[in-house]
Amino acid sequence: MADPRFFRAAGPFTVAELAHLTGAEIGGAGQSGLSIGDVAPLDVAGSAHVTFLANPKYAAAFGASKAGAAFVHPDQAHKAPAGMTLLLTANPYIAFARAARRFYPAPRSPAGIAPSAVVDPTAVLGEGVAIAPHVVIGARVEIGAGTSIGANSVIGDGCIIGRDCLIEANVTVSHCLMGDRVTLYPGVRVGQDGFGFAMDPSGHVKIPQLGRVRIGDDVEIGANSTVDRGAGPDTVIGAGSMIDNLVQIAHNVVLGRGCVMVAQSGISGSSRLGDFVTVGGQAGITGHLSLGDGVRVGGQSGVTRDVPAGGAVGGSPAVPILQWHRQTAVLNRMTRKKDQ
Amino acid sequence: MADPRFFRAAGPFTVAELAHLTGAEIGGAGQSGLSIGDVAPLDVAGSAHVTFLANPKYAAAFGASKAGAAFVHPDQAHKAPAGMTLLLTANPYIAFARAARRFYPAPRSPAGIAPSAVVDPTAVLGEGVAIAPHVVIGARVEIGAGTSIGANSVIGDGCIIGRDCLIEANVTVSHCLMGDRVTLYPGVRVGQDGFGFAMDPSGHVKIPQLGRVRIGDDVEIGANSTVDRGAGPDTVIGAGSMIDNLVQIAHNVVLGRGCVMVAQSGISGSSRLGDFVTVGGQAGITGHLSLGDGVRVGGQSGVTRDVPAGGAVGGSPAVPILQWHRQTAVLNRMTRKKDQ
Amino acid sequence: MADPRFFRAAGPFTVAELAHLTGAEIGGAGQSGLSIGDVAPLDVAGSAHVTFLANPKYAAAFGASKAGAAFVHPDQAHKAPAGMTLLLTANPYIAFARAARRFYPAPRSPAGIAPSAVVDPTAVLGEGVAIAPHVVIGARVEIGAGTSIGANSVIGDGCIIGRDCLIEANVTVSHCLMGDRVTLYPGVRVGQDGFGFAMDPSGHVKIPQLGRVRIGDDVEIGANSTVDRGAGPDTVIGAGSMIDNLVQIAHNVVLGRGCVMVAQSGISGSSRLGDFVTVGGQAGITGHLSLGDGVRVGGQSGVTRDVPAGGAVGGSPAVPILQWHRQTAVLNRMTRKKDQ
């Protein structure tokens, strides 16, 4: 279904292959040998497509779908149209995501170094590394096998980049130790000086920023986001964290595993987030705070105090989310009254 | 008046030429042959300059101006000093803008491909296309006549770019179909993956993003702004929309014609804006919303519900603008009382 | 202490040299000839390190520190452990910052022009200028002695850049007059068109932006921040101002000396800040305002009115900071009551 100017589907794969890939059980019409050529939404899928039902509110569309196969929870299987082959799984959306990834794997550039790239002779590149035109690779840089560096990107002296990473175009990285399978989208800036200086009426005095940025495996950082290196300790992005576009991460910040930061959010210096913390769009977290595992920060909120594990906060300054809802309700009530 | 290091005025043009260009009628001293060498503000303009009066509060400065000619509404013409040639028009600011554009047209680079640019042999470039140094143009890209691509910019495989576009330096474009006369300012990122993944404690699973970005004619996108491509449907920027710096537009967002987004504002996935919607600075719009034609969103507000055509909202969460003004008034009253 | 992959300390320096550098007096054990090899925090410093005590709450760690030398206020000197050489000064943090800067001076690239750089023959480069690979320098550009331009950066026609500036990688500069010792971090955009157009239902009409950007000495601008050039007047960044990442500065804005703008804050067109104004993270200042010397703007606040010198404001819309604290207190009280 995707525009062939930009995308080419791998495959086809049989239902059996997709079941094996995702751990789903085959049910419904049970045609395990059915050849599937692409993924598609419920309403446009045809007999050679696989689709999914995750949200029960789309059950009617599911019942009317012409898809050859579908990922679906066993509890919803009875809503399938006759003749559809089912891929039964506890989490149809995750399974569909894995299947879609199989049809459309992350793009990979052909290995090799573009003639216009400038690679320091002391840099060490693993097997299958792809270096695009006009890239600059500094001294003593190490790049793991299968990693690709996009056009016009710049990797500073001494950086270590893991295997199968995708650094897109126009990215700048310095002072960084990066794990495997990391994706940096275009325009990301990693490793520059943190915002550290001693304020003084005769002229602010810059404090040398002597830490690094450590990025765990499977991290993604969105377009034009910025991650400053530590002032002495490191700035750390935990494995599997997903960072959206235009996000700011200041020096010494530590993100745990699997954190999610939505676009235009920011964290000030030295704050620490536990695992699986989610930060809404345009939210801000001031410096030197601690947010426990699983904390949820609402969009546009401003966190100025520690939040214990499992907490949810909203508003600016942020308060527990239920209290914040009451604040907005009270204000609405007071000001609606005035209309009468 | 502009610094000749950076700007060179075209012209001179006669008053008659400016009248013809803008549809204004000549009045006042009526010297249609007067040679005008530049545009200038009311207070510094001289006899070879054209100026304008748009806001009646500057009528005194208008009366004292030494400008040779001025765009002015017929109702204000009687405030002109003797000897000034008038260019009478219902919208003096628009007319002045068009005249200024005539003196200072958008810069255009000389046609040709810089030797250091890397252009895929399958790319098709129209007449007069200018490709600056270190640009990278991917496979099967099509670029319309008169378009200019700035230094170190990267255009990904398959993109189609219209005529007379201005892509400035250090820009990244991929998965994009672009109209004519589009301007992308430095550092813009268009077409990268949207922020789509299935959250899972064992590791978030990325959803392939299989849509495109479609940009209409006459769109401008400001420095370091980011526009993600669609997840399956396209992300769409309607013709004539003006987007400021550091703006985030997520996957599947649809902007109508003539929308205005001020700096650091953002729109989450799949929200749809009608025509001529204006979004204030640092405002945010959450996902899957619909904002009708002509909606106005106040600066820093956070829109969490649909807004019907013509509506105006403010605050976070956003409420109708009058209610929001009452909210701030009530809060001010309550807290001022406490001082007594 | 810093990772030698990325940092190499200058030195060693004697205590006497550090005292001379910072204006501190030698006290405590008084070993002016002691050789100091590095800076370090109180808890990890050893006998060849210099540390500091600025915040009295760390006095216990200071008393237990094994550092050979420490910057400290004379009033706190009695808390030092026996055997430590003291560097007595009224502002230990500033003194330590200067010492740290001596050990870790700003990085400087070797002079010379990379073969892949494209430098217009009319550009004038001072002594010791370093031009990295794939840089593009436009016509009539002037660059002062000792300045370094990072890889893939683009300097537009006519720009003047002072001495000992550090322009990092992937930066775009146009229409700019820059002082000495300015640092632009990766991805900064300076000098592009401001967001100026006449709104019109038949299509917004762009107003030519005919001003420049003037940047004073010792300014720093953070990664991916954007500074638009003036519309007619100039945009001005006063000497010694420190601007963090992802900050937006619109056309005609004037910052005084020593201003501080924290990440993701923004200023709309034509607003003027006095000297030493501080703007918190994600704060916004609307257009055409005047903020006096020393004004403090709280994080995420939205300034919509002038603020006199010395004022402090918070909230959106911003009010005097004490009133804002009362607003949040009142709201908290009203909504906590509801729990009972």
Explain the layout of strands and helices.
3 copies of one chain form a homotrimer.
Chain A (H helix, E strand, L loop, with lengths): L12 E2 H8 L2 E4 L6 E2 L1 E2 L9 E5 L5 H6 L4 E4 L12 E4 L3 H12 L8 E2 L4 E2 L4 E2 L4 E2 L4 E2 L4 E2 L4 E2 L4 E2 L4 E2 L4 E2 L4 E2 L2 E3 L4 E2 L4 E2 L6 E2 L6 E2 L6 E3 L4 E2 L4 E2 L7 E3 L4 E2 L4 E2 L4 E2 L4 E2 L4 E2 L4 E2 L4 E2 L4 E2 L4 E2 L4 E2 L4 E2 L8 E3 L4 E2 H17 L3
Key attributes of the depicted protein:
homotrimer, 340 residues, alpha/beta, Udp-n-acetylmuramoylalanyl-d-glutamate--2,6- Diaminopimelate Ligase, Chain: A, domain 1, UDP N-Acetylglucosamine Acyltransferase, domain 1, twelve-stranded mixed beta sheet, ten-stranded parallel beta sheet, 4 helices, flat
